[in-house]
Amino acid sequence: MSRDSWATPMAVYMAMDREFDFCGDMCADDGNAKHPLYITEADDALTTATIERVVSLIPSGNYVWINPPYSNTPPWVALAIQLQERGIGSVMLAMDDSSVGWYWDALQRCNEIREVVKGRIAFVNSETGLPVSGNNKGSKFLMFDPYGRQSPPRRTYIERDQLMQGGGELMQRPDLLFPQSSEQVPLSPDIEPVSPELPAPAPVESEPKNEFTPDDLHHNNTGY
Fold this sequence. Notes:
The protein is of the alpha/beta class. The chain has five helices and ten strands, in the order βαβαβαβαββββαββ. The protein has helices spanning 10-20, 48-57, 74-85, 101-107, 160-171, and strands at residues 6-7, 37-38, 63-66, 89-95, 112-117, 124-125, 139-144, 154-159, 185-186, 218-219. The strands form three sheets. The chain has a six-stranded mixed beta sheet, sandwiched between helices. α1 (10-20) crosses α5 and α3 runs parallel beside α4. The protein is globular and about 35 Å long. Residues 180-184, 188-202 and 206-222 have low confidence and may be disordered.
């Protein structure tokens, strides 16, 4: 199985969902979606039609979850920026590699970089549900606030075991889990909106880009 098919451990998602209360999973399949509203590879989250559908279903000011394919992160960073310009925030789980070009692009628009320290995340085989080995890089979360940003991103840290423990405790609460069933609704542009009563999101003015250097980053520690 390629790394592109690795799924997010539920404990990681639950820990972040507690903080951001996600309204959709932008990069999933029918077997590993973390939210009832999700986008599969067939739906293609990167098309204009699907983006417009997401904007129509999710009220502005809310967040979506993005765990992009390991080998193709750049277009997903661009997607997070597009959604931010439309008033929808996102939290992206990405590999910790500051040498790649997409990371610089993310730094221009994200509000927070949260590094996972003291251990690497063990991703999950989406077919078996078991942890997989071979993750030779660390991970970080990139947060894109739905209201844009007014200052350079802050840098925070979370220990791997602390993250997994917090999410694992939440997994013991059935009321916080959703069943993977026919009630799940792919965010396909070819089906009728599942929540037509949701108001259309208010237009959001694009924030001017705030160029900065790595010296501008703020550093502090984060915990649950």
